[in-house]
Amino acid sequence: MTKTIAVTMGDSAGIGPEIIAKAFKDHRKALENCFVVGDVATLRRAAQVVVPPGQGGLPVAQIAHPQEALQVPPRCIPVLPLPGLPPPQPWGQVSAAAGAAAAQCVQWAADAALRGEIAALVTAPLHKEALHAAGVDFPGHTELLQAQAARHAGVPIAQMPVRMMLANPELRTVLVSIHVSLRQALEAVTHENIVQTLLITHRALTPILGHAPRIAVAGLNPHAGEGGLFGREEVDTIAPAIAQARAAGVDALGPLAPDTVFMRARNTPNHPGEFDVVLAMYHDQGLIPVKYLGVEQGVNVTLGLPLIRTSPDHGTAFDIAGQGVADPASLVQAVCMARQMAGLSVR
Ligand SMILES: NC(=O)c1ccc[n+]([C@@H]2O[C@H](COP(=O)([O-])OP(=O)(O)OC[C@H]3O[C@@H](n4cnc5c(N)ncnc54)[C@H](O)[C@@H]3O)[C@@H](O)[C@H]2O)c1
Ligand SMILES: N[C@H](C(=O)O)[C@H](O)COP(=O)(O)O
């Protein structure tokens, strides 16, 4: 049986549906075997946004089962609707209805992946305030999927540790902590969290790269603490955690100065990167360098889950939603990475 990939529609008020429609329109080969989990009317509205009037339209086909995605005619968007999804919400506004619908689609796709019915899920962006307004108790996809996978496995969430990786062709970064305040992120720089991040990164990237990843560990403080002059986290916490992971066979080096470690890891034709991945101590330390290189190529991958999940590295872009100008490139890259991880052909 050919497995399919579910693309969740994201927040209907954001650019998710329209970048999905654009991807199906302009990147048919990459989107082969993919279907959308979402609301048919939302995808029809998005299709109208991306095909200028008089150009023949972009048909949306309702399907009842993932396998039906393999039968739809070319240039048609297969949509598997879920019961009770609300109609498309006004562009660019936070709405609880859109947050709830986005979460419902992700939960459906995660369950299908956990049951082995689909090869992977690719999540279009949702808005975290909308998710919160809907009463969903998780800040983003990563935490939602972690909880869903833990429930499926019948274990507490703490026994399903996951980490966020952002990757583009030049740089990869994995975060010690994700959606918490900067104060909480500082508290999350613990021996246990760092060792766990190193082990998850090592296990997840070894099969992808075909060798153990060379992991650079960023320090927390300016110049990685300068020998304890600007903070003791490197001496007291990060270096011992690296030593423990190294003893377990992880190829980790550091702590290295955070302001130069990404430059050293960046892999370009003129500069082979010194490392395969940088372990960042908190969200923005890792994501700023990756996003600064451009949102077109970046992909967000959740490491540690018993399913394959990728996502574009940008959000709902409420400022441009509904204008038909949003770039689908990062979503297409996310689909390509999911295909690669699932062992499906990459076009
Ligand atoms: N995968 C996800 O679900 C995901 C990822 C990141 C952010 N978010 C959420 O999205 C919401 C909005 O976040 P934000 O405003 O900080 O970041 P954003 O990525 O939505 O937008 C930042 C800027 O980049 C532009 N932009 C983003 N994607 C683009 C695209 N494909 N084409 C052209 N321009 C694009 C936007 O117009 C905006 O100017 C927040 O709730 C955030 O948490 C979700
Ligand atoms: N931290 C991510 C980013 O900035 O790209 C984003 O918020 C997405 O998070 P989830 O994949 O957990 O929704």
Automatic annotation (TrEMBL):
Keywords: Cobalt, Cytoplasm, Magnesium, Metal-binding, NAD, NADP, Oxidoreductase, Pyridoxine biosynthesis, Zinc
Statement: the UniProt record of this protein carries the keyword Metal-binding: yes
An example Gene Ontology CC term for this record: cytoplasm
Keyword Signal included in the entry's annotation: no
Cofactor, how bound (note): Binds 1 divalent metal cation per subunit. Can use ions such as Zn(2+), Mg(2+) or Co(2+).
Extra facts: The active site is located at the dimer interface.
Record-given protein name: 4-hydroxythreonine-4-phosphate dehydrogenase
Record lineage: Bacteria, Pseudomonadati, Pseudomonadota, Betaproteobacteria, Burkholderiales
